[in-house]
Amino acid sequence: MKRVVYTPQHNLQDQVSSIRIDDGKRNALSPQVLREIYQALDRAEADRAIVILTGRESVFSAGFDLHVMKRGGVDALRMLRAGYALTARVMAYPYPVIAACNGHALAMGVFLMLSADYVIGSRGDSRIAANEVALDLPAHAASKRKIRASLIRKIRFSIPLDLLDAMLFGLRGARPR
Question: In degrees to the nearest 10, what's the CA dihedral of 120, 60, 37, 20?
């Protein structure tokens, strides 16, 4: 079942697309959901679109999928790595990313929101997006790359170190009782 819906821009005048996370529950970021968000960002970039990233009405994202985290092992490590990679991807996205949140944003959801250019209540989507369409998008992309390049490098550098910490301190898999 697809948990991430990408809605492309409707015409050349409207450069705004949306990526909506909806797993029918709390929008846990499972490996599949993380992969789908990443793919939706790739499609939006190919469309040269400003992105509004939203969740369900009651929750943006509850964070990493706890079922995967509790099982531990390789799947949990892959999910952590994919989460960091997604945060770096959102930060490096060349056009504005607007996180529209009308509820709770926990754990990884917070990182997605913090890596966005703007965090707004879902009712303000169209006004903010309309302002962003007026930007010189190539200039915006160049400025964004320059400002965030160092931070993105640090995030990518820290991924293996954080995964090593996770392996050493708790994601070794289920322990016998």
Answer: -80
